[in-house]
User: Fold these one by one.
Assistant:
Number 1:
Amino acid sequence: MTVTQGTMAGTTMPQVGERGLDRDAVRIRVEQGQTNHTDDSTSRSVASIIRANVFTLFNGIILTAMIVVLLTGSWKDAVFGLVIIINTAIGIVTELRAKVTLDRLSILVASPVLVRRNGDDVEIAPSEIVLGDLVWIRAGEQVPADATILHTWGLELDESMLTGESRTVRKQEGESVYSGSTAVSGMALVHVDAVGEHSYAAGLTAQAKVYKRNLSDLSRGINTILRVMSFVVVPLCLLLIWSQLHTVGGLGNAIATGAWRQAVVSAVAGVVGMIPEGLVLLTSLNFAIAAMRLARHHTLVQDLESVETLARVDCLNLDKTGTITDGGIVADALVPATADDWRAAETNRDEAVQATYDLCNEENPNATGRAAMELFAAEHVRPGELAARIPFSSSRKWSAIVRADGTIWIMGAPEVLARGFVDAARNAGSETSVVDTVFAPVLERVQTKAAEGHRVLLIARAHLAQGQAAATFADSPALPAYAQPEALLLCSERIRSDAEATLRWFRDQGVRCRVISGDNPATVRAIAANVKLTGDREPVAVDAHDLPQDIDELARALERIDVVGRVLPEQKQAIVKALHASHHVVAMTGDGVNDTLALKEADLGVAMGNAAPATKAVAELVLVDSKFSHLPDVVARGRQVMANMERVASLFLTKTVYSALISLGVVLLAMPFPYLPRHISYIGALTIGMPAFILALAPNTRRYIPGFLGRVVRFALPGGIAVGLSVLIAEATMPGILGWNLSHAADLAWQRSCCAMIVFVLGVLVLALVARPLASWRGVLVAVFAAAGVIGLFIPPVADFFALHIPQGGALVALMVALLASVAIFVLCQLASRVFARIFSHNRQTRQS
């Protein structure tokens, strides 16, 4: 703690009577916990990331099955359990990398604040502020806690992080200021009313800090399968164990001979086959790859499943400042105050340009001044001769220069200057109606330019009073009783160069964009029109105060609205809820604390890299370099993942269908299970897992359409039924034809090898259907994996490990016949499914008509 002697950084502090809290009062408040300490976490905790990836229904089912197999001592058949480790590791590592990156982005050096305690001004850390402290707020500093202004010296605040309103707000004594605001000019002494978690900003983000795990349509479909399987698995597993024990002579014989182990392994083979473990792994892997690719484009993915949400977005809510505009100011033009063209104006343009340049050319010009000087740079304007200067003051809202001939040029807010000239005329005993007559058309022109999206400054000309010296005017600046409006300086927020092209991409892709802002709706509408938010159509803008309160009514109103201005944080959240009520998938961009509730409510929250820490903490995506133009690539990447994953999910669900059918058939027919877990691991890797991984990375920009699970099930049923029937028929007929006794281990091993080969051949056919069109690299892909499966049978270590043996003699002939019959069954099932689909489609069209 540093005690200052009434000055800070060269600035003399005003003398006030308040002494502030003494040491004992501060100590008591610290003991009572009334300090300004807050939880500044900027991302999810390590524990929450680990919990979200470890404790899943899928992991529970697979882990249980793996433990059961390991207890039998058959570790080779527990290979499927590695999926848990890989899948969990991918999720944890990827999300931890995102956390580390985000935490690095959010490291902020907390500047000390100046408080008055016991009559002295002392420097302390923001977290050491206590309830009741007196705090100095100075230009350039952030308000550290909610407070009430006791004394102000022209304090102006930027509250955009809280309200979304980009204009500065002049504060008066007795008014409240909130933590998160930034002082733009002036200073004030304030009394702290709320600290820490009780502050406005903390209350606004309290709901947002509760972690919301996104659940993608793909994951939802997988979890639906897992939930169904979880009800089926336990009774079916018990039935499978009972049936397998029955095939080896009953429980007593199984225990005596140790055959119970093989019975359990066989039962687990049926259970594991029904669980699409490869699909879960591939989903996580593809989400992780997409996240890494996006990271190369400066887009940070905090939640892997949000990648899939990108594919479904059909509604994008944009915050204006920081998204469409970059927050900077640009001077657009200097125009006559009362005419449309300088040729029709009484004022000489060169004279007005020189005056405006000199007015802006202060020692430390503000953003507007710098923008105006850049506008005139091409004209090679140089500083003119001045007799005096009155710098811009936030309390006056105007600045002025005086020429040697006594001419005064004044620049400021039009409404302020017009009102000031009227007051000056009244005080001088002059006729105020003359001033009103002169400035009325100017103010109308100002309103017109403001509606076009401009911020307008007025440049007026006056003269020193008779006998008044320039130095006297500068020492006691006051507006003269009469001035002539000469020019208007038109400024606007600087629009990002990539905004128009990015919005065009979203329009072409069928994504409806809306601008939701805290600014004046007319200004926002003009900016939206400039970037062609709605193409050739003029955007429809409304004031948030005019929106209906009822969610359903709001949803209907939003269908015709493109721009909403003067929006409060709660209203942003309500807009997202209303769009959800209309069944839209909503993405929301933002950078301020005022956006946190809406980002949390949205299906996909997108924060800018320069956003408030609380905003980045709740967002699923962070655009690290704050470039809006990254969003098309983000959406395209999500569409690629989802469209391809729907294609390959059909492979995995086919396995689920035939595994369930075979398990049920084995129980009903009381016969040995037709293959081992390691068989299905080998077949799944070559006909599902590895080819699916390659197919999932192929280019694909098709927009995702809801109904993933239904489409996948319709594809998987014919193939799954064909495989299940073929294996059960082969299991029931081949032993009788070949004279095999399945109670003998050798004969059972031959039978299982034959059934596994049937599954493999039909699995290749399913892969060929999924990979279509085959007249490309996709056909080569199918051929390569089919060949790899066959070649593996002739490699002794591979064949021995996976217990796959090619039969000889008559058994080989029987296998060939069984394979041909299986292919025929597969073709018939596919034809039947198409016939049923056409009948169903025809009946539905008939009912609709």
Number 2:
Amino acid sequence: MTVFKTSLRNFLAHKGRMALSAVAVLLSVAFVCGTLVFTDTMNTTFDKLFSVTAADVTVSPRGADDTDQNPRTGKPESMPASVLDTVAKTEGVQRAEGAVMSMSVTVVNAENKNMGSSTGAPTIAGNWTQNDLKAMEITSGHAPRGPTEVMVDADTADKHGLKLGDELRTIAVTGDFTAKISGIASFEVTNPGAAVVYFDTATAQRELLGEEGLFTHVLATGADGLSDEQLKKNVAAALDAPYKLQTAKEAADAGREEVGSFLDVMKYAMLGFAGIAVLVGVFLIVNTFSMLVAQRTREIGLMRAIGSSRKQVNRSVLLEALLLGVIGSVAGVAAGVGLAVGLMELMGSIGMELSTKDLTVKWTTPAVGLVLGVVVTVVAAYIPARRAGKISPMAALRDAGMPADAKAGRVRAAVGLLLTGAGAAALVTAARADQARQGSMFLGLGVVLTLVGFIVIGPLLAGIVVRMLSAPTLRLLGPVGRLAERNALRNPRRTGATGAALMIGLALVACLSVVGSSMVASATEELDKSVGADFIVSSDGGQPIVPQVQAALEETQGIVHVTEYRIVDAELTSPDGKTEDESLVAADPTYAQDLRRTTVAGELSAAYGKNAMSVGDSYAEEHGVKVGDTLTVAFKGGRSAQLKVAAITSDDTNVDKGAMYMNITTAAQYLPAEKMPQNFLLFAKAVDGQEKEAYGALKASIADYPTYKVQNQTDFKQDLKDQVGQLLNIVYGLLALAIIVAVLGVVNTLALSVVERTREIGLMRAIGLSRRQLRRMIRLESVVIALFGALLGLGLGMGWGAAAQKLLALEGLEVLKIPWPTIVTVFIGSAFVGLFAALVPAFRAGRMNVLNAIATE
């Protein structure tokens, strides 16, 4: 009990310092708990949606893929209406209805604005069925009754200001058609963001599937008392052809699995960044307790002198850490729930609707938060606690500070140098690797070893780097600058730990910046070298290009040719007898002009001949294929063909790497028209000297189709740069949490350092140091510590990024580009971070009473 009282007294005596450390614990725990609550809530939302909308038994074509939102043909797999008749007559079926559903559509309003989601959620078009009433209610107007009527969901109507009577145009591979809104239906469960439109059954069949009398699903409802499993068996027995049958549970599970894989990636990525923040928080806590222990050295000596054992002193410090961990973790759990609600509101603002009614806080979430916060805090405080327990009573009574252990410092430096050297060797090995898998292992090992090495060797580096930084900066500012330098060098271990916290976040920023810039530079160089087409036409959502767009492009003036580019799925059997699933590119012969591919054998133009194809040199080497060999190609949905290898292309590229080419006419020989994929891309070549006019004409020709874009090579490069930039900005935003925790560490270090130097500060004030000079000294000390951490982090990160780029060169990313503007901006920004972190400590030091400071023991 005495130990607990002592710990509580010490905790309360330094509550301001503890509060900053508690904030670090709070932020780390909040990010972990917020991530768990947010992803659990999304899972709950989708689970409810899938469970409510699933029929007792769903029948779909055998080839249908629930996860394929954009089938290559642009039309979903379908089955004849006779299946509906058979299912309706099956024993135990109370009701059966045919459903039509397609996600390969675009819906636009009268102003030609896309009504789809901006978050990547699909636009779903289909017929209105009784099964839809399980999840939706018509709240305005009525269901569609003919080809000129359409019903929309309420979320889409509210988002785009749609009302009854407004006209919508639906774009599908079968053509465009218009209809007026006859009704609006509201979801009774949360709709995560999909835009949904409904037509009458005949219109949906004709416009989405190409002909009436077809369905994509048959939905069967069982009689009371009949289990879904038994109903599935009865339907399977009644159908004489192989169809895909799913019970309500199986259909819901399939939907959960599809969404769950995406949510898992997002969850673990966010938890990874939370882990970085936790690691940075460890440095803050270690520094805080180290300094608090150092300031209480005399007090600890007195405790030892009156009979306290090492274990009791150790336990006292650990109890303080336990209190800190519990308080920070409890607050962090609460903050995490608030963070999750904030993320839901953010997602709502960009189109993904998540209701707080579905807010899911599992018991494991607060448990994980509490355990994480407490364990991390206690573990971080163990080294300072152990150090406190080792202080001898007489040494402590003689000295108000903790004497440095020179031998321990030399051992630490030796270990740090060894780890850093081993890490550097691993990075070099990764950069020289011939295989990506082997190189990745060495890269990961090198990153870990160099990071740990820099952390361990931090005190040694602090003495060197701080002097280097001070020479051109602090020493030019006179005595105040030199005092700031000496203060930063006074305790290299403390400076090293404080700088290391900032180093971790900035190292990741630098590494990802180098990799991102190198990716863009490599792709840009490859485009300049390989792409001969003037224009590339693609879809924003990855949907197939509808024939209407292709026809409009081909009619544009000033265009020499338009090249089709389709992706065909097939089973490929090589001469060595191995059969593999492959995706082949079926293109026009002009594609050989639009993309300049290097061949290692044969001529690429010959691959576009009758019953001919090309393969990549990696495939050829793996299977012993050479020019003149014949491959068996079993087209999925069509017949098998014997195609002669007319060319082998080099895979030393990142554009169409590994692609196998054939003529579109070859694919059309073995695939029925309804199985022929739509174009994935289109390429266009302008008449020489008319590129500018053709560019404008192409854009105008497809202006009625807002989801498709025409890009020249400049646009394409900028689009790639923007995509990488957006991804990096998201990563930088997540890393900001770790940097905030690191800034708290600088604030805490400076604040405790000011307390530690109270008497010294009083003496300096007494001999003439002004308040302004004192504040400047503390600010400069903070700046040099921040620059020290930034220099280490940026240098380390650029080393990681360079090694990663050399490894990625095996995949065609051969250009190493250091983003110096970003690196310099981050370095200069670190100085402002140091200034910001010093504001409060400098202000408090300036207000210190001189006489009281001198009298401080």
Number 3:
Amino acid sequence: MATRGSRSEKVRRIFQQFDFNRDGGLNREEMSALVVAVNPRVKFSDEQISAILDEVFRTYSDFIDGEKGLTYDGLLRTYDDGAGDVDRDFEALGLEFKPDDDNNDVTSSLALEEASTSSVMERASSSAVGPPQNRRTAAWAASPNHGIIFDDTWKLIDDLEILIKRLKAKQTKDGKTKGENQNPNFDSYSDPGWSRELGPSSELDKRIVWDETGHDYGVFVKELGSLRSRADGSRSREEAFDGHMALGRVLYDQQLFKESLVCFKRACELQPTDVRPHFRAGNCYYVIGGHSEAKSEFISALDAAEAGGNQWAYLLPQIHVNLGISLESEGMVISACEHYREAAILCPTHFRALKLLGSALFGVGEYKAAVKALEEAIYMKNDYADAHCDLASALHAIGDDENAIKEFQKAIDLKPGHVDALYNLGGLYMDMGRYQRASEVYTRVLGVWPNHWRAQLNKAVSLLGAGESEEAKKTLKEALKMTNRIELYDAIAHLKQLHKKRLKGNGSGNGNGNGDDSFVIVEALKFKTIGEKTTLRQELATALDIRTFQRTTRLSRCDVDLLKKEMNENETPLTYSGNGFPEKSIRKASLEGVLRRLLGFLKPETFVGAVKAINLKILTVLDESESGRVDLGMFFAILAPICGGTPEKRKRVTFDSLLWRPANDHGVNGQIKKIDALRYIKLLRAIYIPSQGASELLELHGDPDDSTVSFTDFVALFDDPDWGFGILSTLMKLETTDRNRHGKHSCAVCRYPIIGSRFKEMKSQFSLCGQCYSEGKVPPSFKQQDEYRFKEYAKESEAVKDKCMWFSLHPAKSSSGTTTTATTTNL
């Protein structure tokens, strides 16, 4: 980071390079050349350049010297206000800074810098409404866009600063305040490059924690109320607005957010069409945790900006960024992407908007687009540790692991204690099978964050992968002290099973500790089933995949009737497809709002994961053309079979969703076109049963016609085991049994306790969990069998009943030689 003197010298050098006619100002042509030169990778249109120059010359009109253009002081002020990055621009221009090559120039630049910082007082002294010349105040107070206008406002600020100093002195003396007086980041429309960042890459800022319960604070609030009354009693509405805005700014700077919010809300009442108080109120709400209220205020700010035309253009990028952040805090990541993208369009050098866009795109599974946005952000700001971390995660997601490792390492080099970069790097090493390296990285995570139980658990797993079972066991016990989650108990049981297996001489031969070669995969034809209730291996594999998707999205907790309610209560306007057919098409961001209502019981972070899974599995198929819009009726029909409810209700709502689509003209006598029903089945199978291939229904069943099908006919198509969605019955079985535990029974392959159905091989008497059974895994000691005959037990009580029946069918002889029937068994 450049010092104050070197920074002003760099601005002077930039100014001199583009002052082509050496008249001491940058006219529009010279400023245009500067904007283009410092953004070599951005392709500006003539309209964009014109809009940027209009904004600069209007915002910094006090620094325009007639036809000469923007003065040096004006250019310096643009950088002071955050409109650009001096160091980045200086480097992009290929200039070289030598601080001692001309002492006289340095001296003069320092004098110019002093003039710039004191220009607040100079302009004020030449105006009838300025502060005294010896006043020292925040830079924002004299800004041409949002500074103090009226004399009486300065008096209010003087009195407020006295109240704050008095409160701080009392609370500091009593030890009631904590932290440092450091402005939180979620603010400042004087800095287009700033925005508060959310998610795993963010850090908490140091803040003052005021004690709001004591007598001193009560006195302060009462005296502050008097100042607000003085502002309300001003001679004009404009002066009252000026007073409340200034009071709010000072209170916000001192992190008295609740009191600041009162002032900004009053300013909103005084001038509802002014963007600034809505923006400021939104920032306050966000900081105190009112994310929904913050979102509403930012939306109001955008509405006001739209009504006010170009007057508020300078503020729009910040509004979009902060609105995006507020939406992310509610889990609305797709919607947030739209606002980050808009901010980047309005301000192409807004590297944080690009970083946030990349991170959000990654969050919804748009990995390639995320990589592009994050690379652009890093190009603009190479020392952006969080951007390097998120870029690494995106690269890993698309399979570029070598470059992902480099990016994680860059993030760690820039910020050695970067927990997220370290944790994700550990996960990458585990995915690559480099278990020892992974355990070392997780150790570093725990060095920074000792109570990170997930890092502790993953360290145990990586140690297990490296063959260090004893160390893994110790690490697991440490994780158990941090949390009592059930998966830790299962992991410990797994380790014990592996340890017993090694003692018997059946340990894994590859030495990785996972037992990965302790099974063989048998071809599907050798797997036979006993009884009609035993699920076929391939059928179970498909159902397990759908069930995993259900768990990720929590759609099984969403009653299917809610889909019907959405169709009845939230009418979607008709749009027209490229073929001219009407459809109830909806933008992905709006669809995200529908999902938020359907899954309103989810926490924001869980909802993000659900949207990501739905986007990757469903929306990418429905929006194959990447138009950003989805047929809502078809989307509801795709969701209905995996939502909560009886099979009959699910099929009924599926049919009603297709009936609701305008392509069916709301049905003819309660019927839908057969071609639409077949197209739906094809999409359904392509999404949920991709391993079996998308069946070409229209070709298999002949040429399509305009005939219609009733609900009964549709159910027959739907239930067809070969061409329909007959897998639903198996899925329903999983939904009701996949939490069942089978006592002490463990899977003979993976060694984990069996949860869900237990598949028992009736000849060799070993048991498999559903996952290993679906993958065709058997213990190597039984690999010579010609066939394997499995029976499925959904509950352990079924197995006990089966045993009792077996003993009943095999009567035992008594000691006297007579035959008796066994009525009791020792199980």
Number 4:
Amino acid sequence: MPNLARKLLICAAVDGLIVQPLATKGQRNPAPVKIKYGDATVSSLPRDQTPDTTKPNSSFEAFGVVGLFTVSRLSYLITITGRQQVAQVRGFPVYVVTDVALTPCTSRSEAESAIANTATKLRQASADKFVEDSDSESEVDARSVTGGDDAEDPGALSDRETSEDKDTSGAGGEKSSIAEDVIKHRGSYGRFAQRWFSRKGWMMDQKRNLGMTSVETDQAGDQVDDESDKAKKGDPDKELSDTVVKEKVDPPPTPSAGESLIPKLLRFSHIWLGTSRSFFFSYDFDLTRSLASQPPTSATENLPLHESADPTFFWNRNLLKPFYGSGEESLLLPVMQGFVGQRRFVVDRHPPQVDSQEDSMEMNNMTPPSESNIEFPPPERAPSDLRPSEKEFVITIISRRSTRRAGLRYLRRGIDDNGYTANFVETEQILSTPAWSPPSKIYSFVQVRGSIPLFFTQSPYSLKPIPVLQHSPEANFRAFKKHFELMGQTYGSIQLVNLVEKHGVEAIIGREYEKAVKKLNEQETGNTLPLAFEWFDFHSACRGMKFENVSLLLDILGKKIEETGSTVERNGQIERKQNGVLRTNCMDCLDRTNVCQSSFGKFMLDLQLKEEGFDMSVQADQENSWFNTLWADNGDAISKQYASTAAMKGDYTRTRKRDYRGMVNDLGLSLTRFYNGMVNDYFSQAAIDFFLGNVSSMVFEEFEATMMSKDPGVSMSKMREQAIETSQKIAIEDDKEDFIGGWTLLSPHVSDTLKALPFEEVVLLLTDTALYLCRFDWKLDKVSSFERVDLAHVVSIKVGTYITSAISPAEADESRNVGLVVTYEPGKFDIKRTNTRSLSSMSGQSDESSGKVNVLKDPAAAPAAVSGILNQGILNAITGKPQTQAPRKIALKALHSTTAVSDTKDVKKLTESEQINLIATEIERLVFYNQPALASSEERQSIIERGDIISLAEAKKSTGILEQLGHSIKKLVWA
């Protein structure tokens, strides 16, 4: 293959799909790339001189590679096809991603077809952009006709392309692929929207008013086009909907589990990575590091960006793994999620007195508060227009969302085992001159926000959910301590600003936060700085829409902010470093947090400008609309990425005013967040975890079964080990019993049944004389109840297929759904105890037909409770019950050995069948030991019976219509 070093085969299944980097300026500069199929020679000429030897529509140029992902047997390449410059830092442009292309890599026909369609759209978008730019008077009209700005969204579909799409979709009238539909039709809605808005909808009135066409012409054209389309390819709307839902690329006889969610994943990918405008990149500047954390230039000048980028904020690091070690470093373009915004402003050492706000804005070249979406580049003042006492500055805000505990509002709360918190965002405010000249100072002020660093959850099914603390105090404090150790290493001293309510539902978590801070400060030695904690009840202080009362918080923290200072660079050298950081939080770390952080940022900006010789308090424009707008845009961006809506209280952040209209807007945002939290976020969370590499593609198989996904930040293997250890201490009272082993399994939530949904995860303990089934409260790390079965009473063990639901492929897989049923005859040493977490012990009548039931004290007092238990013989004598009871069952089902959350990759796991066989064999061995009659028989018969516990056929019969309908509706809504 010619010029092998300039080519990269990205998937073994596609022999010839090439990602070809175009000519680059330097080693640190990832360049635009060409995506093509084939083995064409690559010229070494500069980009604008390279002859195009490829066939029309056989390749397209992208602005960079986001990465490659594989689900089931399908792989997709993600490339940037739309970008917009939003800032320039040190002379280097910074871009926001406005569109991406997803190219399937599973078969040649799919790849060629997708590339051709993407090339067609990009060429059409470029032509449309040229027409719009060449006729500025009709710019608005042109956009109305084409349905939008295709320069930023080349995935938009135009009527001119519908006929071409048929020709490029493959020979023989093949249907287009899912990826094509996503790229081309915006996830199955593009053609419907295009047909409605361009012909039949409100656009008709616009065309009539503008004199562009008549109603009759449009109607006639409509009829001709419809008849022509139907004659050529039937009903295009029906064909499109059928294609999006049913299309598979070379499908096997039976689609693999989770594969039905791929259309949903592709739509999400296109929206999340492309049109959401949430991802930013620069070819030359490292966006992932603040000014204070930038390594020396000498250490990074020869390193590609992906090696110098901070992994905490490098969002496509996992997606780029297939390209690592390829020798083509220019392909690896780091992308950051968050916000980048920039504004110019002018200040005056001796501002003239003006009588109106209009005069002041005109003098300072500022934008009124209502104009919130100013495109880059910002307005520029020529040096000749500046008065001698004036100076122009640029303020830049860069917010970096952490990848560590990434996700959406109610599905990622609090902290994880490694000390990372949800919605952790580092926001850097940079003040510089427009030219970023070395002799001038560059100021950098960094703040962070993040969820309260404790284990807690909140239900999405409430507008005002109550925080629920999880896990033991010891587990919480361990994670809490880890978090601030990491923060101290990164930022130095830490000032905590807690904005939750001191009374009401939020106070629960706020008080625990305060207790943890005090405990950590008491334990810390002189080697570390204590945490400074300020609890400011935002809702109480700003009641009645008086958000200006945030100044009370500034009065408290002003001196601390001044002492913390900011990082200052001049002539390429750091003259002063910020020596600490403010960590602000509310419950979501969105609305209240953004209001306060903007106030802290303005306070620091005033200090920095004072150092430059400018007093902001005497400036003609006291509205500072350029600053408020920038911070409001920042708040909206972070809020959309975490809660799927713009930030509340945004009207105050923009205008420093609050009225009833802002309240009405906030109510609408609350309802939208409520809906997203209940419905949309579950799948989105699974997809985010997958893209970041926190889970495997199996997450979609699990999601299809439960419509939920697990939290990869919490190590289930560690939790299960701790649960077995805790259960052992609580349940096994006799020190003479030898502990053999412990396992976590699934069991019906009602005892002595085989199918009592939902199944819950339990702890099974085995000693030399007994079997213990412990029901565990995983949120509180406590044993809620347990029952003891003497091994001498075990009659039989059944091992086999155990299917409890046939709704999803994962649940109906006979090889993975196996279990065992232990049948025993209750005797005098078989007991059941329940933990009420009370200070007294009381005996209660059992709803069970066997053994003895006691209410267990608090686990700390378990031995005292155990010593007061009456034996079965005495209980039977009192109640008059016979010694023998009806046989009872303990049903256990194996957990899936491989899951999407792979926290024990290096440990070889037993399969489900191997684990069940091991447990059954151990129980049988000890049963024989405890039943000498069985052990001494000449021909000892195994008590293990092989056969279906619940077969697939039985599960299908027992799955009711309502259950199937409920799952179908839930899948329709959630997925």
